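Q: what sequence does this backbone want?
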């Protein structure tokens, strides 16, 4: 009998089991269906606080009594402490389901210190307004303690979506608006093969990997801290030319003893989650790099401390133990950062779409745009508005959620 004729006479049935989760329930139910030579077309199972939700779309052969299958499935479910609902799926409904197979798929990652019902409602309503269907919602973060503590917490929920947004421009605006209003981060990614095979992560250093701008720390030692800090802020907002700004700031350091460099390096504080991000990436086989408009001395210090594979930054000229107020070679500016990212991909033998770039300043934008996943981290307004992905309320380790890493993976 050909497939078309077989589908016309076989019965498609959706079985939905709910109840307290116990070991062996799925095995027992599938064993029963096997005794009737049923095919399992689709399956979805989830357990929420010991409550089982199991859906099975099955094809019952035309030679089998459908009513008997349903009756015994209900009886077996009762024996297992489960309620069983069933629904016959018409050929039209099935064909419509199959037709959605080629539709675009996206991942929306919701990041927050603690996911609230208000956040969840706003995000799900926004998705509905865009005509997107939620296929699966998964919690990536671990189970929070019953009693709140003063420790910083992390929460993450991942939405697997189907369909094409009605208005991509409005979608991006909505993501920004919700993030700002509700103290959460929302990352929107196309769910394609490249999302699952990222291989190289490049990070800016100052105000990304580190909490401080190193040149401001150097300026404090040289007695010109306030002046240099103001220039740095304007530069990161995109208000000043980076090359001119860097030369101006470095020139103010002329005569500073190089002996202060180790002292400054020792007092630099890592951004929240930096160590966890880097150690996890290294354990999972990712290659990592610093691509910075900062300075090589501090990049190499972090390289040794965090096990980073590559460092690209500006080199301070030092003569007779003192900074001359000059940098050696080409300045690592916005254009150069993007070029170095391309070089990094070639050196590591990966496609550009397998790159992740993370930065905060206007000089990071070309690098973020060039990467397969560019993330604006606690970024200046111009960067948040332009970058495709943002993390503004969490630490650097939140990037792991964007890769689909679960908290339980961190301890496996």
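A:
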């Amino acid at each position: 009998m050909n497939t078309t004729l077989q589908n016309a006479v076989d019965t498609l049935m959706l079985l939905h089991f709910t109840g307290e989760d116990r070991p062996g329930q799925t095995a027992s139910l599938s064993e029963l269906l096997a005794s009737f030579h049923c095919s399992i077309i689709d399956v979805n199972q989830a357990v929420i606080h010991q409550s089982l939700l199991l859906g099975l779309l099955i094809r019952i052969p035309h030679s089998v009594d459908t009513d008997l299958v349903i009756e015994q499935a209900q009886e077996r479910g009762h024996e297992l402490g489960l309620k069983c609902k069933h629904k016959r799926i018409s050929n039209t409904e099935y064909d419509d389901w199959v037709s959605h197979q080629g539709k675009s798929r996206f991942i929306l990652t919701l990041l927050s210190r603690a996911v609230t019902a208000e956040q969840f409602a706003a995000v799900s309503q926004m998705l509905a307004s865009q005509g997107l269907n939620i296929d699966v919602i998964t919690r990536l973060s671990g189970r929070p303690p019953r009693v709140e503590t003063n420790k910083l917490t992390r929460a993450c929920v991942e939405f697997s979506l189907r369909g094409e947004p009605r208005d991509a421009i409005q979608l991006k605006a909505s993501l920004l608006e919700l993030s700002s209003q509700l103290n959460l981060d929302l990352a929107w990614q196309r769910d394609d093969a490249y999302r699952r095979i990222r291989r190289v992560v490049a990070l800016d250093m100052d105000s990304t990997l580190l909490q401080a701008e190193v040149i401001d720390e150097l300026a404090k030692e040289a007695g010109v801290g306030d002046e240099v800090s103001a220039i740095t802020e304007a530069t990161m907002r995109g208000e000043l030319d980076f090359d001119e700004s860097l030369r101006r700031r470095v020139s103010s350091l002329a005569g500073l003893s190089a002996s202060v460099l180790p002292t400054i390096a020792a007092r630099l504080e890592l951004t929240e989650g930096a160590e966890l991000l880097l150690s996890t990436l290294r354990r999972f086989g990712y290659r990592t790099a610093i691509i910075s408009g900062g300075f090589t001395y501090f990049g190499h210090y972090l390289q040794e401390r965090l096990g980073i594979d590559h460092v690209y930054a500006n080199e301070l000229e030092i003569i007779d133990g003192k900074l001359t107020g000059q940098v050696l070679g080409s300045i690592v500016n916005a254009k150069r950062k993007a070029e170095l990212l391309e070089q990094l991909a070639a050196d590591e033998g990966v496609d550009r779409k397998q790159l992740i770039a993370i930065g905060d300043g206007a000089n990071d934008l070309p690098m973020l745009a060039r990467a397969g996943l560019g993330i604006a981290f606690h970024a200046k307004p111009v960067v948040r508005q332009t970058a495709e992905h943002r993390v503004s309320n969490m630490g650097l380790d939140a990037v792991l959620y964007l890769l689909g890493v679960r908290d339980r993976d961190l301890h496996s």
